[in-house]
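Morning, I've got a small favour to ask if you have a moment. Here's the protein in full, and shout if anything looks odd to you:
***
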Amino acid sequence: MRYQPEHKAEVHEKIVKDASRRVRTEGMNGAGVAAVMRDNGLTHGGFYRHFGNKDELLLESLREAFRETVDTLSQEAEKSRPETAWKAIVKAYLSLEYCDHPERGCPLPALAPELARVDKSMKGQILAELVNYKDRMLPFMPGRGVADKERAFFSIFSTMIGAIEIARMLPERAMREKVLANTRDFLLHSF
């Protein structure tokens, strides 16, 4: 059976989206190629029609995760006045819903320790994704100039990432919500 040319692109996108959710949920080593392909109705051998190797899939899945995160946070920010856009980002990021669903959330709380240990050949590409993430969020950050906005970005996002990581370790919903609420209140009153 012959497929239309766009079929390969659609399948590729579906594989990347599935891998992106899996990586955020199961970690970089937990999202096996065979499972991703099987869940998309494909064989392990079909993987090489789409990717040169697992690292290529991993980088594309990270790129997809960052894109999803930026799109979600940007939409929240754009619903607010420009001077309070960053607050909308903080509220969305530090929500229990966002915390309890790593497959839909920012890849950094889910993968930061693993990303720090990736092969040197991947570090440059991951850095490029991090810079793009920062650049896309910068217009929403508090501050007068670029330097102030960058300082705010690193302070706000580092704090939020850490809070999500800690909250995800806690077994009880009330404990997770307390960590998120305290961090949210701290950030909203700090800038």
Notes: The chain has nine helices and no strands. The chain has one domain: 5-188. The first helix runs from residue 5 to 26. The two ends are 60 Å apart (CA to CA).
